[in-house]
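Q: Structure tokens for this one, please.
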Amino acid sequence: MKTDEFKTNDIKSKVKLDREYSCVWIEELKWLSEHGIKYTFVKEVNGVTVWKYKKNSELFHALADFYDEVYTK
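A: Here is the predicted structure, written as tokens:
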């Protein structure tokens, strides 16, 4: 086995991917809601409210617009 293969496989076994997009910023939540993106569920993590969204292209396009039009100004 090559060294690079070992490192990649080792990393993959340690990484846990979240199937949902997590939002903790109220401005981001408002933007997504105003643009028709609904969260899937809400949970609290260490006292912080987290809105979870299904990952899809519509969500990521809305997020790109948010960060382009709101966050970077």
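A few notes: The radius of gyration is 16 Å. Residues 24 and 47 are 11 Å apart (CA to CA).
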